[in-house]
Amino acid sequence: MSGLDERFHEYFAALDRSGQVDRCYLCRRTSADVKLFLGFSEDGVPARAAEYGIEDVTLAEGDIMSYRGIRPVCAVCQLNVDTITALGEHEVLTRLLLEMERERDELWPRG
Fold first, then answer.
1. What is the C-alpha R_g of the chain?
2. Digits of tens for pLDDT over the chain (111 positions)?
3. N- to C-terminal Cα separation, the chain
4. Contacts for 98 with CB less than 8 Å, ≥ 6 apart
5. How far apart are CA 8 and CA 111, in angstroms?
6. DSSP symbol at 7
7. How far apart are CA 13 and CA 3, in angstroms?
8. Distance (Å, rounded) from C-alpha 67 to C-alpha 70?
9. CA of 29: how far to CAs of 18, 60, 77, 107, in Å?
10. At what angle do helices 90-102 and 75-86 cross, to 10 degrees?
């Protein structure tokens, strides 16, 4: 199977796992949203290339969304998790997720 065929199958398998939703599971950004967040247009060219003198830079399609896990995840969320892990804050993140799940009413102001 060629690399392109493999990516094609990964994409559609991920869509099946996510209920046909092509968005990051965590932040809900689409591929186009992620590109825009990173400063690129939908075709992968920097949005303000001339202004910054980076006309030769392009963003490859596969660099912004992973479809290999149990749900699609974008590059922005992966970088956030990488940073949290590098800072040794994985346990804090786990505790925060539990707080958000179990103590939601205590986290938000009333009123």
1. 18
2. 666 677 767 776 777 787 887 889 999 999 889 988 888 888 877 887 778 777 666 676 557 888 888 999 999 999 999 999 999 999 999 999 999 999 999 998 887
3. 57
4. none
5. 48
6. H
7. 15
8. 8
9. 14, 17, 10, 25
10. 120
In the chain, what's the furthest Cα-to-Cα distance?
A: 57
Q: How far is CA 62 from the centre of its chain?
A: 12
Question: Cα–Cα distance between 89 and 74 in angstroms, integer?
Answer: 20
CA distances 24 to 20, 48, 53, Å, are: 12, 25, 30
The verdict on pTM exceeding 0.85 is no
Structure tokens at 68: 């290999």
CA dist 105 and 70 (Å) reads 29
Enter the tokens of residue 59: 């963003």
* Token digits of residue 108: 């938000």
| Token couple for 72 | 């699609």
